[in-house]
Specification:
This protein has about 425 residues and is α/β, with parallel strands linked by helices. It is built from 14 helices and 20 strands. The strands form 4 sheets. A 7-stranded parallel β-sheet has the order 3-4-2-5-6-1-7, sandwiched between helices. A 7-stranded parallel β-sheet has the order 10-11-9-12-13-8-14, sandwiched between helices. The relative contact order is 0.11.
């Protein structure tokens, strides 16, 4: 146990976390000591780390096959969990598999089996059907955001996976939703239930802006100016609405990113990278961005269109006012519209004048080398400081991927910086550097 505590302290230090929150502490104890756990906690409370810590503690370093399988509803969540595990620096290999990329790439990566496999049910079921990896040592199964997986049509795949994996001795189910039925095929007998839903841990304000029939986009622009600085998501129900909002914002020279299931996986991932590093302060998105993606605390969210159900309204709002922070959810309401019954305690605000919207001063650069080339974040920072001659406040967030990297830099001299650094050497690789479009 003392060794586990020591390992946990080292992992938290690598992640830059001072201590576990109460939910994570309770989850660690419950998952470690029970064969079946249901963990219910709001979006943004740290459920990923809550189940990863006890799972990593339970792994056997002498076993060379997959020992834990984590099923997730989206590619973004699979990538996020894979990244978290790598940043934990436990020494255990993890790989993510998901639809939208070639199955052969998956097979190459898991030819040397990871201790932890993360994947969407459809892709994992396909690999199981093809006997791509050994299953006898898979003892732990996590169904992360399991209600969302059921909602988006993965029920048959999940059923097939659970029936195929006969060696499972530990099951963990997580969700940010209270009222969800657990299918019988999951095979739970006497699960330990840990719920942190309904517990007030943040201060969310809900404010309503009324618009006339022809004035919705103008009201959105005024609202963004009223909010001023900060980063947030504009939620739409339809992909067509995203296009309408995006075209309007571009027409007003307001930089932003777009995120929906209609976009290619690479475009979605790059939109999140620019949003995370501050190149874009605004993301226009469907409910796909309401949970299961890796973005930090937001200052606000805007309901350009209201979702039809309470749970999606809650998940959207969960992107701001996370944990013990404050945040604001804004609703754009037509003057002849009645708000749904599930919206309570909203405050109607009038916007007479607003600040001019300022775009970010960051630009994102793409570097054609990554983790597989033995390149580290320190190597990249050193290149920009020493050869690029930039100051510390001109270098932003660095995201390191398997075969590339993304770097936020000040836009003031970005073209000169590219000319100076393009075709430089990082470790043994000559890398190309360009602006990420």
């Amino acid at each position: 146990m003392l060794e586990n505590i020591k390992n946990q302290e080292e992992i938290l230090s690598k992640l830059g976390i001072a201590a576990l929150n109460p939910m994570q502490e309770a989850a660690y104890k419950v998952i470690s000591s029970n064969s079946e756990t249901i963990l219910l906690s709001p979006t943004g409370t740290g459920k990923t780390l809550a189940f990863l810590l006890p799972i990593i503690d339970s792994l056997n370093p002498n076993i060379k096959n997959i020992q834990a399988l984590i099923l997730v509803p989206s590619r973004e969540l699979a990538i996020q969990i894979e990244q978290v595990i790598r940043e934990m620096g436990s020494g255990y290999k993890a790989n993510a598999v998901y639809g939208g990329r070639s199955g052969s790439k998956d097979r190459i990566e898991i030819k040397h089996p990871p201790a932890i496999l993360i994947g969407t049910p459809g892709r994992v079921a396909d690999h199981l059907d093809r006997s791509v990896f050994e299953i006898k040592d898979i003892k732990t199964l996590v169904l992360d955001e399991f209600d969302k997986s059921l909602e988006v049509g993965f029920e048959e795949d999940m059923k097939f996976i659970i029936e195929t994996l006969t060696s499972i001795s530990k099951k963990v189910l997580t969700s940010a939703t209270q009222k969800v039925k657990i299918p019988t095929f999951v095979g739970l007998k006497s699960p330990k239930r840990l719920s942190y839903l309904g517990k007030k841990t943040s201060s969310l304000k809900i404010k309503t802006v009324v618009y006339s029939a022809q004035d919705k986009l103008i009201s959105l622009e005024k609202l963004l100016g009223y909010i001023g600085d900060g980063n947030g998501i504009i939620f739409c129900n339809l992909k067509d609405s995203i296009q309408t909002v995006s075209e309007f914002l571009y027409g007003r020279k307001i930089n932003h990113g777009c995120f929906s299931g209609d976009l290619e996986q690479l475009d979605r991932e790059r939109a999140l990278i620019k949003f995370r590093n501050g190149t874009h302060k605004i993301l226009v998105a469907t409910d796909l961005a309401a949970r299961g993606i890796d973005i930090s605390e937001l200052n606000f969210i805007i309901h350009y269109e209201l979702p039809p159900r309470l749970d999606e309204f809650v998940h959207r709002n969960g992107r701001t006012a996370r944990m013990h922070s404050d945040g604001t959810a804004y609703i754009l309401k037509w003057n002849k519209e009645d708000l749904p019954d599930f919206i309570e305690n909203d405050e109607e605000i009038k916007i007479d004048s607003a600040k001019k919207i300022k775009n970010s001063h960051w630009k994102t650069l793409h570097i054609s080398g990554g983790r597989k080339d033995k390149i580290s974040k320190g190597d990249i920072a050193g290149l920009f400081f020493k050869q690029g001659n930039i100051k510390k406040d001109e270098l932003g967030i660095i995201e390191l991927k398997q075969d590339c990297a993304y770097v936020a830099v000040s836009s003031s001299n970005v073209n000169a910086l590219i000319n100076l650094l393009n075709n430089s050497r990082l470790k043994k690789k000559k890398v190309r550097i360009s602006i990420l479009k």
